[in-house]
């Protein structure tokens, strides 16, 4: 069981109410009462993830903080300073509530398949096509693997023609990671060695990068829904024990994000992404893949549901239903039609679906097939020949 206190602390996300934290860049929704109104679902979400949390204690501490918060918002000049001190004294009530994971929409029951070991690293190294930098835990490719890598990257972009290409920052502040409830120990901290430099992480193409441009955004009626964006390039994580195309700290990825006004619309987006990615890997690249709905214990904190497209136990792509969990924390809203006699004003927080495909892992499995005597698709062979 994972102790609750090991969950991410939200001091940067809640900097406005904590004091002495990082530069304030996020203004999350702090009215979390609706989360505690769904106690049964919250307990299921925690049990699924193997998290031990005293929900009643967290709720009581949060209620005390929120009561003070409401007084602070309505306070006059004479009492506002004292109430601000009380808010900071009761900060754990807010921080522990913000650390709670997303509720579970649905979870799969299939066990994680047995991972078939990969032989691509030894093969490519012997061919002089890959060099492993063990000190920095990265790999360097030359020759035809680079050609195939670039081809897959371009084809994944073409796979989602409705997604607008963007080039997000490769860096994200701690508050962004906390808004996504991501374990910061899995990311690479970055500094310029000055004492005043804010806590920042090198993330590359990732969920923090692709959501950051929309921080504190309010979409209007003129936007075409769903709003969708995509990016490709290097993604970065902290060091792992194994260094190869599937586990290096720098890997090539394709990321796509959909934002919708309707939770019901997410189902169609998820199904379409599953079909597109699965068909591309299976039919386009001749990889034998299976789509699996992940179990609750495999869900990331920001996910309410997730599917993985796997080849012999190796996850090549992940489709994540997020809902409005992240948008409430990054303050990404939409404004709809004004209220009428028959309907209420349609404002709210956007609903999200995120798809991340690991290009380097796909390349690794293609090389594994080659080692086993399986020919790659003809168009890949033709592209390789042209590169020489």
Automatic annotation (TrEMBL):
GO biological process, one term: mitochondrial seryl-tRNA aminoacylation
Record-level Gene Ontology MF annotations: serine-tRNA ligase activity; tRNA binding
Superkingdom of the source species: Eukaryota
Signal peptide start and end residues: none
Coiled-coil residue spans: none
A single cellular component GO annotation: mitochondrion
InterPro entries: aa-tRNA-synth_II/BPL/LPL
UniProt name for this protein: Seryl-tRNA synthetase
UniProt source species: Caenorhabditis elegans
Taxonomic path: Eukaryota, Metazoa, Ecdysozoa, Nematoda, Chromadorea
């Amino acid at each position: 069981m994972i102790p609750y206190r090991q969950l991410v602390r939200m001091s940067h996300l809640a900097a406005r109410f904590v004091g002495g934290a990082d530069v304030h860049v996020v203004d999350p929704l702090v009215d979390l009462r609706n989360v505690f109104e769904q106690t049964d679902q919250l307990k299921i979400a925690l049990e699924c993830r193997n998290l031990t949390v005293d929900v009643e204690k967290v709720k009581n501490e949060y209620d005390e903080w929120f009561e003070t918060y409401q007084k602070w918002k309505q306070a006059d000049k004479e009492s506002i300073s004292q109430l601000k001190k009380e808010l900071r004294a009761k900060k754990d009530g807010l921080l522990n509530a913000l650390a709670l994971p997303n509720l579970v929409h649905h979870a799969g029951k299939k066990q994680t398949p047995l991972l078939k070991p990969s032989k691509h690293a030894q093969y490519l190294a012997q061919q002089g096509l890959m060099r492993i930098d063990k000190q920095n835990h990265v790999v360097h490719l030359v020759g035809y693997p680079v050609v195939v890598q670039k081809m897959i990257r371009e084809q994944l972009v073409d796979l989602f023609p409705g997604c607008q290409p963007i080039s997000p920052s490769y860096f994200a502040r701690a508050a962004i990671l906390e808004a996504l409830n991501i374990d910061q120990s899995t990311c690479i901290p970055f500094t310029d060695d000055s004492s005043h430099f804010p806590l920042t992480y090198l993330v590359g193409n990732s969920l923090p990068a692709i959501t950051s441009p929309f921080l504190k955004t309010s979409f209007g009626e003129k936007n075409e829904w769903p709003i969708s964006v995509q990016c490709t390039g290097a993604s970065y994580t902290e060091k792992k024990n194994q260094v190869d195309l599937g586990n290096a700290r720098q890997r090539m990825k394709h990321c796509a994000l959909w934002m919708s006004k309707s939770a019901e619309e997410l189902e169609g987006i998820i199904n379409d992404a599953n079909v597109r990615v699965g068909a591309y890997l299976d039919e386009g690249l001749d990889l034998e893949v299976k789509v699996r709905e992940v179990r609750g214990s495999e869900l990331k904190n920001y996910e309410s549901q997730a599917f993985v497209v796997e080849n012999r136990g190796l996850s090549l792509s992940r489709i994540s239903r997020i809902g409005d969990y992240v948008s409430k924390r990054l303050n990404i809203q939409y404004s709809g039609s004004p209220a009428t006699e028959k309907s209420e004003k349609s404002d709210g927080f956007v609903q999200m679906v995120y798809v991340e495909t690991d290009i380097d892992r796909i390349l690794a499995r293609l090389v594994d097939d080659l080692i086993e005597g399986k020919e790659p698709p003809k168009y890949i062979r033709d592209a390789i020949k042209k590169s020489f």
